[in-house]
C-alpha cells in the first residue's frame, strides 16, 4: 500500500523483519492483537471513527490509540500488503452463539500464502485466535489462546468460525465470499456507530494485553485472570486504559468515558 509507514507500524508492535510466510503472518497477527488494544472509545462517545487508511494510521500509529474491527483490520491489511502478502477483505455477521448472525458489521481478512487461504483477524473484540487459521480446514485448530473450528453453514452459505468449549462449540461469526468495497466498510462503520441496536454506542468495550496478561473491559467491569471486578473511579479507568494497556488518552476523554458509564449504568427512575 503506497504511503504506509511500515517501520512505524513494526515499531508499535515491537517486532522486526516479517517474512511473507505463514510464520510471518502468525507473528504479525499475534503482535498486533497483543500490542494494539481493541477499543470502541470513539463510538461509545458518539464519534464515528475514520476508516480510510490515512485516518486509521494517524489514530493508531501517530496518536497511540487502538480501534475496533474496521480500524484494526484496515491497519492489518495495509501492513500485510506493504510486506507483500496477498490479502482479501470479507465482512462477517457476528453470531455470539446464535444460529444466525445480524448485519455484516465485522471486517476480517483472508490471506493467501503459496495457494493456501488463511483466516487472519486482528480486530475481533471477542475471543479471537491469536494466530491465523486454515480457512478450508474442517478439523479443530489450536491457537495459543484456545481451540477453534470452521464449519460451512448450508442454510446461510457462510463459513462460520466457532470457539470450542468443553461442552459446546460457540459460534463467533459467519462470512461468505462476497466482494467488499471501501463503501461497504464505510457503511458498516456508520451502522456500528449510529444504529441503536449496535452495542458500540451503549457499551465501552476494550480488550488487550498487559504483558502476557489478557484484559477485558466491559463498561466498568474488568475481566482479568478468570476474575471480574468493578472499577470504582475515573482514576481506576485511567490505570487500566493508559497505564496497563498503553493507550494515549487525555484526562478529558477519561472523564467523558467515566461520566457516560455512570449515566448508562444508573438505575431507571
TrEMBL record:
The keyword Transferase applies. It holds the Pfam family Acetyltransf_2. Keywords: Transferase. One of its GO terms (molecular function) is acetyltransferase activity. The keyword Transferase applies. SUPFAM superfamilies: Cysteine proteinases (SSF54001). It comes from the Bacteria. InterPro entries: Arylamine_N-AcTrfase, Papain-like_cys_pep_sf. Coiled coil: none annotated. Belongs to the arylamine N-acetyltransferase family. This is N-hydroxyarylamine O-acetyltransferase. It comes from Mameliella alba.
